[in-house]
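re: that complex we talked abt at group meeting.

here r the seqs, copy pasted straight from the sheet so there may be weird spacing, ignore it
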Amino acid sequence: MIYKIWVSVVKEFLLLKRDLGGLIILFVMPLVLVIAVTLIQDSTFKAVTNSKIQILLVDKDKGSVSKTVFENLEKSNYFTVVTQIDNKPITEEIAKENVYKGKFQLAIVIPENLSSDLQAKVEQNVEKIVSNLGLTDSTSTSEPQRVIKEKEVKLYFDPAVQMSFKNAVMSSIDKMISQIETKSIYSTFQKQLGEETINFEQKSFITFKEIIPKINNKEVLPNSVQHNVPAWTLFAIFFIVIPLSINIVKEKTQGTFVRLRTNPVSNLVVIIGKTITYSIICMIQFYMMVAVAVFLFPSIGLPSLNIEGHFLLTSVVALFSGFSAVGFGILLGTVASTQEQSAPFGATSVIILAAIGGVWVPVFAMPKIMQYIAKSSPMNWGLEAFYDVLLRNVSFVEIIPRISLLFLFFIITTSIALFYDKKKRTV
Amino acid sequence: MQPIIKIESLSKKYKEAEMFSLNNVSLNINECQIFGLLGPNGAGKTTLISMLCGLIKPTSGHFTIDGLDYQHHASKIKKIIGVVPQEYALYPTLTARENLQYFGSMYGLKGADLKDKVIEALDLLGLLKFADKQVQTFSGGMKRRVNLIAGILHNPKVLFLDEPTVGVDVHSKTAIIDYLKVLNQNGTTIIYTSHHLAEAEDFCTQIAILDQGQIYAQNTPSALIEATKEARNLEDVFISLTGKALRDDI
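got the structure back, here u go
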């Protein structure tokens, strides 16, 4: 039996070696995928000077507030502020039109008299407080207060921009405006109290500090590469489903499968031969992607994948993920009658498994029902096992439940395939 | 001669079918015979061969090959039979040698013995100089010859051939038939289906004519011709027994 398995593995490798298109799909496409996706995702995580987003600023205020907004946006490194188009100042209408046509992603419209009205409003409030505290000059006469209407900074977004981008921008502008208001309040208090020499500390008292997990007393800061490489590597590993299912369908259509059934060899031997071959392919894919992430990424401006101390465990996760993908491919190839059935179904199902498994959107951000569904995706088990090893620094024992699920998936899918094949033969 | 294949009341009805594809067939095939199974399309030839090769299970009835049945000795039977299917059951991107070494290995052949057998068979069928060419570059006749070798490398006691010469040139056909005759002389029993009645008349030592799942006649080619009124050859016998109506089969 061992000899027949060995010969089957050799045969599978020979078939793959002669299929240039298949080899490109197996090895080149996953690398292109992981590089492209990581590059794209990385730009959303960090400020890249040469990929600043251009935003339109319509300044109707012409005061200190709009000046501060302009300066802060410019300083942020994320944006380039555009105040003129074709050497003409931008009006609200022009800004709106340009953004809604997708020429710019965002326009900020600062209303008229925002600076003066803000100052006036703050002064009114401060005056009220100071007067209630009995700190006002007794000789001064109180004048009726002017009614100051609330001001609105308008934001126009390109309808095509994603919600996450919108939220991030709105949150940062909100923070900026709050800081301006706070500063204005402090300054007015100083003025009202006549204490020009007192210098209020205007820096935030409460700050945030992220406590980063340490591995070997070294802080390991998760970056886009640590998140993306395992996710897309897993995605690529699962794409083995397509060539494997096509391989099985071909065996059926070209008659070799029938010949094998008349030979003194069980279908199990044939399946084991394919499992070993395609699991090795999965591991080669994995090591190639890791090599690219470790050695190539730094030279294209991406952080290097930190796999130090995790190499063995990530290999174990990749192997079991590979088993899971191979099992799925065997089942699909057994059930499908033609390549036209297996290839599109394989591709679509892998994308669905990736989507519900949390490759694109984190599972915690999904609706409750989808979170339960996600837990039934082998891609999710693999992804979480990779994160456990790479980001949560867990031991082998702690990943056993997840890799056991992956192996169980392989056993179940392969058993169904063998059972289906046997049943189909009883025509 | 002892019967190597004994078939008793064998029937097959496919799940979706209304009629029996094979209906209560009983038959003995003796050792070292070249047994021709002839019949129009849909007669039940492929169904009978598929059952004898272990590809499908009978609905009822029983058969043995060399005294063994599939229910208890499937693996042993598969070791003593060889199957040459009608389609080129080969890996197109593998070379002739790689294909043959792989299928030979599945019969447990290995090492120098396997290599020698592959070379010998390729040489006998005039393919040795193409041994390391991919099968997809071969002509139909060359593929047929490789297809044949893949079924006989392990020297089977019983060889099943499903239309082994269909669609090949005269030279390839002659080479295949001559090779099969040598195999038969060396003790291999051959069960053969074909639509080439002249070829069957010349090649087979015994013939059964099937139609509508039943055996209409069985004897040596000459005896069948003699027994049929005004028949000059096997084709006349065939038409006389099965009629002239077209037998398109889906």
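couple things i noticed - The first helix of chain B runs from residue 45 to 52. Chain B is about 40% helix and 20% strand.
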